[in-house]
Write the structure tokens for this entry.
Amino acid sequence: MKRLLTGILFATVFGFVVVGLIFRDSLTNLVSKSIIPKTVVGSFNPDSLFVDSAYNYNKNGMGYQLTWLEFGSTHCRECKLMEEVMKEVKATYPGRINAVFYNVSLKENKSIAQHYGIVMIPVQVLLDKNGRECFRHTGFLSYKDLTKEFKNYGISKTN
């Protein structure tokens, strides 16, 4: 009986681990989105003001069409791979995509990371011209896959 209970317990734990690994990105995105702070109407949120002034191009007059926020660290292997993708995006889409890297291991970036509900790295967040989030991905995202997202918002290499 004791062996049977141990076997059932092991199988249950193993099942949870396997399901967690299979659905890791989906679960991470779900958790990340669920902890994004909800601004109460009339409350003062300095991060919202910063995002609005920096990334709302309809208000600040900058000519970007999208903002790509990359949340990562200089000590993360996947984040280092994303550096190359960021360089390629900056070279291919100058003046159209505002590519910004936030090193979440730095104290001054903790607030913005918390504002966007970053719980794992790397995370890519796309903001539209109004500074509103329109896409989120956790983990490495290839240049090819990222440019597909840009095309979904009407931005191609030849624009």
Q: What stands out?
A: Confidence is low (pLDDT under 50) at residues 34-44. The first strand starts at residue 66 and ends at 72. Helices lie at 2-22, 24-34, 46-55, 57-60, 77-92, 110-115, 143-152. Residues 65 and 154 are 9 Å apart (CA to CA).
